[in-house]
Specification:
- By secondary structure, this protein is α+β, with helices and mostly antiparallel strands.
- It has 11 helices and 26 strands.
- The strands form 8 sheets. Strands 1-2-6-3-7-24 form a 6-stranded mixed beta sheet. Strands 19-20-10-21 form a 4-stranded antiparallel beta sheet, with helices on one face.
- The mean pLDDT is 95.
Amino acid sequence: MEHAELTRKIDAYLEENWETMVEDIETLVRIPSFEESDKATEGAPFGPGPKEALEAALEMASDMGFKTHDADGHVGYADLAGTSEEQLGIIGHIDVVPAGPGWHFEPYQVTRKEGYLVGRGTLDDKGPSVVALHAMKFWKDLQDAGEAPQFPYTVRFLFGANEESGMADVAYYHKHYDDPAFLFTPDAEFPVCYGEKGIYHSLMTSADVPVEQRTVISFEGGTAVNAVPGHAQAVVRAGACDLPAAQGIEVELLDERDAATALEAAGAQADAVGCRLARITATGRSAHASLPQGGVSAIGMLIGYLLENGLIGEGERAYFQTVARIAAATDGSTVDLACSDADFGELTIVAGHAAMRGGRFTQTIDVRYPTTITGDEVHAKLEALAQAACGTCEKPRDDAPFLLDPQGPAIQALLASYNQATGEDAKPFTMGGGTYAREFSCAASFGSEKPWEQAPEWVGGMHGPDEGVGEQLLKEAFRIYALTIGKLIKLDL
């Protein structure tokens, strides 16, 4: 089929089915599909939300005429059968991070406003997954109408259910299925990414200081390990009238009942510490850990305020000072981790989610690192900082950087599809984000974001409040993905 004729058919499908695509996105966004491990059951290993979203996605694909399968709630897939069992893969995820505070729209509902779709997952990754699935359906419809031959490869769409909190879905898939010959994921940025930084996660834990000896009764902040925290809150022993105002800081004196509740939650009796407590809230600006430079750490703001006003006791001080150092700069310079390379640029670091565990303060740390440093070296540095503060540092995740040849035929096919659809002359790139691509033997991340295009101020980004995506961007992504499938099936894999 000539390119002009193919483009005409793609546009015709889009015009006829766009409202259906929006309805499909709405179906998935309505499901709060964040992980709840405490509610996991057999067949729902990540909790009820991801399971419900997986079932909805598979039903959607089945209604399109694809053969579908639910792999015990870990992952699902839909196949467009080819003449061989060799596979081309597409993988999107239907799990999300929790909504968190700060929303001006209903997070688990699609709001259409001025050409944008707003709701948790519209951008990351339910919206792009839906349009990529429809790109598969476009080709199925052509085959059913006799306007395109059966593909030499089977195209498999994988629906992940645990991308945001560990990728245990893909680990399960690898134990039971072979990798596709090539795979792309619509969960990053255009034009096409051929490499991703190393990803290191750790959990720093404070010393066990009895609550009766602490000034900080409780401390929490952020919603995920892989995001700059936009919100943080502490309850401290102080009167609100004694504390100065500060930008982004709100101070509230707790009444006797709320103070008693806060102390009980921290494991102390009200009369053991007294009820003169204040709740201090910091509001920063959330951002994804792969691009943290535009964020403002609410955890860093809050700790800074507590330190400046003498609201951190001797037993907690070393720990909070260490966390403050980590949060003070996203390039690692404040903790002697700054480095860079030609492919990936500079290392980034984020202190993401603060909480309490068994009376100890905890802080997650996300580091995206280039090839000039190893995850072991990152861990050694952070572990030494934690030990100097009488705490500990655990390393639950360390994925090395990966790179593909940007001149390889698969990357060039994706790039050509993007440039043909947009009229641009874009080049492939690397990034700090961690997508499914790094989990497969031959894969790339491919759209659908265009971070250089300015959205209205009321449209938030992925992982933040008011997450949204432009309808025109999703329409363009559909065109790109439809072209891409047509090019990939012609390659000798």
